[in-house]
Specification:
CATH class of one domain in chain A: Alpha Beta
Chains: A alpha/beta (240), B alpha+beta (762), C mainly alpha (177)
Largest sheet of chain B: 6 strands, mixed
Order of helices and strands of chain A: EEEHEEHEHHHEHEHEE
Strand order of the largest sheet of chain A: 6-7-8-3-9-10
CATH architecture of one domain in chain A: 3-Layer(aba) Sandwich
Distance between the termini of chain B: 31 Å
Strand content of chain B: 5-15%
Oligomer: heterotrimer
Helix content of chain B: 40-55%
Structural class of chain A: alpha/beta
Number of strands of chain A: 10
Strand content of chain A: 15-25%
Shape of chain B: elongated
Largest sheet of chain A: 6 strands, mixed
Number of domains of chain B: 4
Number of helices of chain B: 23
Radius of gyration of chain A: 17 Å
Largest interface: A-B, 33 and 32 residues
Chain lengths: 240, 762, 177
């Protein structure tokens, strides 16, 4: 598929997802100590950092999975951290997609049903939802695997199913956390290729947490999270 | 949404199917139990309704002068009916004999027979008819004058195996028999007390209700255990759904649907279970007689309430559980150790014991209602306290085990228990409650029986017949001592041939006539006997050496407390001559046999033929005893059934829980094995984890049960606790051994599950 | 290229403190030249050019014989050139470990923020990797193979950068003692 890249020199674009001075602690352990970040619409951002730095936690906050202790999370101009559990769940379903490293597929459902899940949760008719889901199977080299359960898929296949699920509802933002973490090189490359291509085609914003430079190299820009703070020079969408 | 839920529940792979099956089975057990309660009530009511007519006569022990009606409102011009109910015995069965005599046309006729039998006629129940045909005449049929003209219909039979006979008499004959009364209508009020049923039944109903409730507790624990199966998998599934944006409400809907489906399946199976077990249940003689086939029936309301109520309850409780446990989209990745139970958990237990101690010190409340409230509240506090304090006790035990552990298995088991003591205790909580209930009820019943005394002279109880003559019996039915009345009776003479005839029956040792003491009042229980006769009936004692005439102080064969058994008495001599003795009026005849049915029944028949107009039929000491203790024996029976059933259910629960625990820990076990832990360490660990809390808390709860029983007995009855019989120990030991066996039987699973290939990085 | 890094290495050492040629060689060997000790002649030869350009001053000759007794010191010009060299990222080509290494140790020695430098280098590496990745996706298979080769080496550098970044504290202590 053809890949359109954003122009090399960018004008100031407004941030689609933002974190402002976010702090979060798990019990006595602080995970985020005032992290700030802005992601522009349509860009692919890599979030890097050593393990334990809080990058996954930052992603969870941006995606409305966790609520920070203080600070703001803003999506499309709306505060996310002040929403209730029900509203944040709905937000995730309608506007976000997720590709995580493990344990994200429902074991009892077939691959097709897993991909259709966000649509089904949104109240779509079963036939329609499955039809949408099936379209993605060919796009992502998953022909014929629709009827399998997640336990019967290989690692790479499972990740591509997760990717399909993440994209099936045409989300505004795709959140990925170590999407290739448990895959070996070729599979991992394959997933990243497909992910970036699909995102570019639909103009989806992508936030990828990774510790692997070769995965980060697929992104337009990277930031570094260290000790709960965003420390990279290029934290701002406008490269200095 | 619901379609999705259905899809997940019904077609969700092997683990989901197992969970559905086990939960349905658990619910089915509960439903079956729930159905037994109303069915049992209905059966008791039905049986009672069919017994009502037998109680048309006066209340037991109250003798009315012939001619005074006691029952029934005087209706129109219907002529009253002479009526006398007596209990007779054959073998170890009771025969109800109703003598009736009409005073004119239009006398009331009991249901079940087309008309009243005339003199020389009788109707017999089907079971009694069979018995009459199959038994030698001199053992049974000779007792009843006349011939059988028909069979009593089922509407008048409390039980298909009831032995009832309605004997016709002439009015002037029957009017002379003490205890006979005129009635104007047949009793249909099932709640009036009587020889057969009444008060007795309402107590049975209470006991039935309590028994069912007691069984429901282990079933609820079982259902809870089943619901926790595959918990990790479900949490993963829900977490994945929450990640892609399922709201907590949607998750709750799915969970509710799952629970409802399991409940619906369980209800269906439960109904099947109930109808399958109904025939067996019908034949169990809870009231001493088994039920008629249609008795254990369910009214339409019962069916509707259970069929609809159980799924609703399941749905509601699932929703409630979901509300408390908010599934995070990040699933089980972050496992937080639950906080350790604190010592204040002991509070309800201490409060319950304290309450019972208070009643020992201060004395029990005056009213029955107050007593019920006091002891029930104390009992519930203790049971609830046991459940609440269990995790704390487990944790304390586990920590000390781990501290003192010499070997790795003990250390692993101890730490794991200390980490999640609530989970470990939940596994055995059903068993613990069952043991507590068993110990408490056994303690109470054994002590009551011990104090009431039994004619456990053993064989003496079943060998010796006692026929009271003339007066009202000094030991009444159901233990009521009847008030003395002003009735005078004519002196009953002993037919001269009787003693010879009795002696001629093979296997009869002898017969003794007991004469009233001259000058003694109606209330006196003393009697005089010929020592030569007494020598052949040592069951009621022996004469002092060299005496001709002995004086008995009483014929109560049931020692209580310090009184020695009757047979141990040496009666003092009395200074009268045998000739003078024979002029006194006889008050009783005692016949001692070797206990064989033939001899006993022949002797009984001879006595009945000789003395046809006595209010009490000849009965062995054992039979008199049995009728007094009928209630307690039945309660004991029900208690045993409840205990065994609850041990079984708790055992199932334990099995499911331990198996689930092993399969949940596939990965840690494999890793341990890979790290070099030998299989026997793993096995020992699993056994210790389940067995240590089981044994420790079992002993604790059994001890608690006895403590509660002792406190109750002490405050309510002033008794001190007696140790239980061997069957209790066997039961408890059996329960614990079975549990250990269940735990041991899951050990092969470890080997299968903890293979190194499971630890592959998936 | 060796000359290039060698000269900056010596310059950097001089910025730390003025030294004799002998001491310079000794220090250089200790920090940078474990496998390949610097020949004496190389030191003076390397310093000749910067001396001529005014970046170092030879200083007064101490009493005693021989050129090794010259005491070199760095000038302002030299100082700013070292600064520039340090802050500028190196071209992300393979086989630049030695340069990176020298830079980090010098930065620590001179009390600069090695952290910042590493971050800048990482950005440059990632930018290069981005270009190579784009090449991989749009080019032929042979191009992809070449790009992968480059990517792996760049990744290796980045791993070193990550590790060093984590060790900076301990490393600073060791170097400055």
């Amino acid at each position: 598929m053809s890949a359109t890249r954003p122009p090399a020199r960018v004008e100031r674009r407004e941030a689609l997802v933002e974190a402002r001075d976010v702090r979060l602690s798990f019990g006595a352990t602080p995970a985020l100590r005032g992290a700030s970040l802005a992601v522009a619409r349509g860009e692919i951002l890599a979030v890097m950092g050593p393990s334990g730095s809080g990058k996954s936690t930052l992603l969870h906050c941006l995606a409305g999975i966790l609520v920070p202790d203080s600070g703001e999370i803003v999506f499309a101009g709306q505060r996310v951290d002040t929403l209730g559990e029900e509203d944040r769940s709905t937000l995730r379903r309608e506007h976000f997609g997720f590709v995580f490293q493990f344990g994200q597929l429902v074991p009892e459902l077939t691959a097709e049903e897993n991909v259709a899940l966000p649509l089904l949760l949104g109240g779509a008719r079963r036939a329609k939802a499955l039809g949408e889901a099936r379209r993605w199977f060919d796009e992502l080299d998953l022909e014929g695997l629709g009827g399998r359960r997640s336990g019967e898929l290989s690692g790479g296949q499972a990740q591509r199913v997760a990717l399909a699920r993440g994209l099936v509802a045409h989300p505004q933002v795709l959140f990925a956390d170590e999407p290739t973490g448990s895959l070996e090189s070729l599979n991992g490359e394959h997933v990243m290729d497909l992910l970036v291509a699909a995102a570019r085609q639909q103009g989806t914003t992508v936030v990828v947490v990774t510790h692997e430079p070769r995965v980060a190299a697929y992104a337009d820009r990277e930031i570094v999270v260290r000790d709960g703070k965003v420390t990279s020079l290029s934290a701002d969408p406008v490269p200095s | 949404m619901i379609r999705l839920a259905l899809r997940l529940t019904l077609n969700g792979g092997r683990e989901a199917a197992v969970r559905l099956a086990v939960t349905s089975a658990a619910v089915a057990l509960g439903v079956g139990l729930l159905l037994v309660a109303p069915a049992g009530m209905n059966a008791l009511n039905a049986q009672n309704a069919r017994t009502a007519w037998l109680n048309s006569g006066p209340l037991p022990g109250i003798v009315n002068a012939p001619g005074s009606p006691l029952r029934g409102h005087s209706t129109s011009s219907a002529k009253p009916l002479w009526w006398l109910l007596r209990t007779d015995h054959f073998g170890n069965q009771t025969i109800y004999q109703v003598d009736v005599a009409a005073t004119g046309p239009g006398s009331p006729v009991p249901s079940g027979i087309p008309r009243l039998p005339g003199p020389g006629q009788f109707y017999a129940s089907p079971a009694l008819s069979r018995l009459l045909w199959s038994t030698p005449a001199n053992e049974l049929t000779d007792r009843f004058p006349g011939h059988q003209i028909g069979i009593i219909g089922p509407t008048a039979l409390p039980s298909p195996s009831s032995l009832i006979i309605v004997v016709g008499d002439s009015a002037q004959q029957l009017s002379k028999v003490p205890g006979a009364a005129q009635i104007t209508s047949i009793n249909t009020n099932a709640n009036i007390g009587g020889i057969a049923g009444g008060f007795h039944t309402s107590m049975l109903q209470t006991i039935l209700a309590v028994g069912v409730l007691a069984l429901l507790l282990p079933v609820l624990v079982f259902i809870g255990t089943a619901a926790r199966l595959a918990a990790a998998r479900r949490e993963q599934r829900f977490a994945a759904m929450r990640l892609v944006g399922a709201t907590p409400r949607q998750i709750a809907v799915i969970s509710t649907v799952e629970a409802s489906i399991a409940a619906l399946c369980g209800v269906a199976i439960g109904f099947g279970l109930f109808y399958g077990i109904r025939p067996a249940l019908t034949n169990v003689a809870f009231t001493g007689q088994r039920f008629a086939p249609g008795d254990l029936s369910l009214g339409p309301i019962d069916v509707v309430v259970v069929a609809i109520g159980v799924p609703i309850a399941a749905a509601v409780s699932a929703r409630f559980a979901m509300r408390r446990a908010l599934i995070s989209p990040l699933g089980v990745s972050r496992r937080v150790t639950p906080p350790a139970p604190r010592a204040y958990r002991l509070a309800p237990l201490v409060a319950g014991i304290g309450e019972l101690v208070y009643f020992v010190v201060v004395g029990h409340p005056k009213s029955t209602g107050g007593q019920t409230w006091a002891y029930l509240s104390g009992g519930f506090l203790i049971i609830a306290g046991l459940v609440v304090a269990g995790p704390w006790l487990t944790m304390v035990g586990a920590r000390s085990t781990a501290r003192r552990a010499q070997r790795p298995a003990a250390l692993l088991a101890g730490r794991r228990l200390a980490d999640n003591p609530s989970g470990a205790f939940r596994t055995i909580s059903g068993l613990i409650i069952a043991l507590f209930a068993a110990s408490a009820s056994v303690g109470v019943l054994t002590t009551i029986l011990a104090y009431g005394g039994t004619a456990k002279g053993g064989t003496v109880a079943s060998e010796t017949l006692l026929e009271e003559l003339g007066h009202v019996a000094s030991v009444g039915v159901n233990g009521h001592r009847p008030p003395a009345t002003a009735t005078t009776t004519t002196k009953t003479a002993v037919p001269p041939a009787l003693l010879g005839e009795l002696a001629s029956i093979p296997n009869v040792r002898g017969a003794t006539v007991v004469y009233s003491e001259p000058g003694a009042g109606q209330d006196s229980s003393a009697g005089l006997v010929l020592c030569s006769q007494l020598a052949h009936t040592p069951a009621i004692g022996t004469c002092a050496a060299g005496a001709d005439i002995g004086r008995l102080s009483g014929l109560n064969p049931f020692p209580s407390g310090q009184h020695p058994t009757l047979s141990e008495h040496v009666w003092p001599a009395v200074d009268i001559t045998p000739q003078q003795l024979r002029d006194l009026s006889p008050r009783a005849i005692v016949v001692q046999t070797n206990g064989s049915t033939a001899a006993l029944e022949r002797a009984r028949t001879d006595l009945e033929v000789a003395f046809p107009d006595q209010q009490q039929t000849p009965a062995t000491f054992g039979e008199i005893d049995a009728s007094d203790r009928r209630t307690i024996t039945e309660v004991q029976q029900i208690a045993h059934v409840v205990i065994v059933a609850s041990l079984i259910i708790a055992g199932c629960s334990l099995a499911v829980s331990v198996t689930a625990g092993i399969s949940d820990r596939k990965r840690p076990f494999s890793l341990l094995r890979l790290a070099g832990a030998p299989l026997r360490v793993l096995r020992r660990m699993v056994v210790l984890e389940a067995a240590v809390p089981l044994l420790v808390i079992s002993v604790f709860s059994a001890g608690l049960g006895f403590l509660a029983a002792g406190l109750f007995l002490s405050s309510q009855l002033g008794y001190s606790l007696r140790p239980p019989g061997i069957d209790y120990y066997l039961l408890v030991l059996g329960g614990i051994v079975a549990s250990l066996a269940i735990i041991a039987s899951t050990l092969p699973l470890i080997e299968r599950i903890a293979g190194p290939e499971v630890a592959r990085n998936e | 290229m060796f000359l290039y890094e060698c000269s900056f290495g010596l310059l950097g050492l001089l910025e730390r403190e003025p030294s004799h040629g002998y001491d310079l060689k000794r220090d250089y060997d200790a920090y940078f030249g474990r496998d390949k000790p610097l020949p004496f002649g190389q030191v003076y030869a390397t310093l000749a050019r910067p001396a001529r350009d005014g970046k170092v001053t030879p200083g007064e000759v101490e009493p005693g014989a021989g050129p090794e007794r010259k005491r070199y010191a760095i000038t302002e010009v030299g100082r700013s050139e070292v600064e520039e060299w340090l802050t500028e990222p190196v071209e992300p080509e393979p086989h630049l470990q030695t340069v990176l290494f020298v830079k980090v140790v010098l930065a620590l020695m001179l009390g600069r923020s090695a952290e910042r430098y590493l971050d800048t280098q990482r950005s440059a590496h990632l930018q290069r990797m981005r270009e190579l990745t784009e090449l991989k996706r749009s080019g032929s298979l042979v191009d992809a193979l070449l790009a992968d080769h480059g990517l792996f080496h760049l990744e290796a550098d980045l791993r070193w950068i990550g590790l060093t970044s984590a060790r900076l504290g301990a490393l600073a202590e060791a170097v400055q003692s």
